[in-house]
Write a structure and sequence with these properties.
- The model has no long low-confidence stretch (mean pLDDT 89).
- Helices cover 79% and strands 0% of the residues.
- The two termini are 20 Å apart.
- The longest helix is centred in the C-terminal third of the chain and has 38 residues, at 45-82.
- Helix 1 (4-34) packs antiparallel against helix 2.
- The radius of gyration is 20 Å and the shape is rod-shaped.
- The protein has 87 residues and is mainly α.
- It has two helices and no strands.
- The chain has one domain (4-82).
Length: 87
Amino acid sequence: MFEQETASVLVAKLRESKDELDFVRHRATGAAQVAPHRDASGWSGPAGWAYQRSLALLNRDLDTAVAMLRSASNLTSAAIYQLGQGD
């Protein structure tokens, strides 16, 4: 087991990392909410399909990023808890 002093330093760093992950996740969530969705609005044919496909990929990637950031934050919380320093 870690010495208490070492564990306290590690917990502080993990909490800082969790705060940063949460900040980035909130930014990514905001970006996902304002990103255009699959609406070709005036585009037709291959250009419309390419536009819609690009928007679908963008939205998928933003959703994936949010989910991965949420998971990283949750795992960081679990690490803090495992060190016996849970809130």
